[in-house]
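Project standup — Tuesday

K.O.: blocked on the structure for the chain from last sprint. Re-posting the sequence here as requested.
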Amino acid sequence: MLLFKIFIVEDDPWYGEILQYHLGLNPDYEVTLLKTGKECLAQLSKKPDLVTIDFSLPDLNGEELFRKIRATQPHLPVIVISAQDKITTAVSLLKLGVDDYLVKDDHTKELLWKSIIRIRENLSLKEEISELKAELKTKYDYSNTIVGNSAAIRQVFRLIDKAAASTINVSITGETGTGKEVVAKAVHYHSPRASQPFVAVNMAAIPKELVESELFGYEKGAFTGAQQRKTGKFEEANGGTLFLDEIGELELGIQSKLLRVLQEKELTRLGGNGKVKLDFRLVVATHKNLADEVRKGHFREDLYYRIVGMPIVLPPLRERREDILLLAQHFLKLYSKENKDTEYKLSADARQKLVQYPFPGNIRELKAAVELAAVMSEHHQIEAADITFMSDLTKDPLEGKEMTLREYTRLIIKNYLEKYQDNVVLVAEKLDIGRSTIYKMMQTGEL
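H.V.: unblocked you, prediction finished:
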């Protein structure tokens, strides 16, 4: 284990040796006693973990030495020990960034011991946070999460890099299952906001009457049932990134309120009067063509130009067929790792079957297909017969069976909800039915 290196800078040999002996009782500490400020500066190349300095040294006073230390070692913890008990001196040094200020008295040794423990705990916490940041960055490194080598996906990589390096809003478009949220996370976790919150909201999954309270939050008593203040998604994302998925489902009234928040960088909670200042990066996603929605009058033109920022278009899997086998192998490796199992191989017939399939459900459908194939395979060799696609699963239910119109309706809606990940708004649009029909069937337990 590496020792924690401490420099004690003290011109009084007797007092310095007392401190050196006291701290040296901890076997984890390597304590070096130095007599002058210049000697300390000359020894900084040895990379101490902490320095204690006497305020009244013969060559430099505590403030001068501290400034010189910080000039070359800006993150090195420094404790000043002084015979002066002037509060103004202590406050001045603490404002400069000194980690602690101790007065020489009978309690100095114990206070110094406790101060070093606290500083070490803070250093350990900073290291932990740094490791977590690195882990998150690796986790959402698009070379790990967005697999592919096609020209189309390499263009997506380039756009992610450019978006992450800027503060511009980002709009991601693509069919369901192409990985829009994965791209949004890649942008966030490679940006300067990576250590701040990433808040994802699926606008299509929130009933329209709750959208405003979910986004803006509300004060206690704002409406019946508001028992306490609730922070909205805008505030939760403060300092970080707000990801609004399926933004094309927002109603015009909410669109105007969103525009105001983006323009003014502040909001008022429902039932409140005070303004809440905001600082977040907006990333939006949709399966719709928002420019067409603007022409149809379904989406505000001013909001469209505010959010479009850097557009990233995700190609459907059928347009990047050279990536299908790479993705399949990637998902099989993940499956093996999660199940602590031997890796699976694809036979030639299985590879051909995968490459020829159009994958209307895109990457999500491919992942489901290869995971099921792994379960069905023998001896970790996946054959073509082991692979079942979503289209195969949805053929039979409506064939050769006599059902009432209500039963047919229920089955169709259920299949569409499964296909589109419970996106009620999108399913209602696809089937040309009212959302209330779906919500009612959910409430009665039919779905």
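K.O.: great, moving the ticket to review. The chain has four domains: 4-134, 141-315, 318-393, 396-443. The chain has a mean pLDDT of 88.
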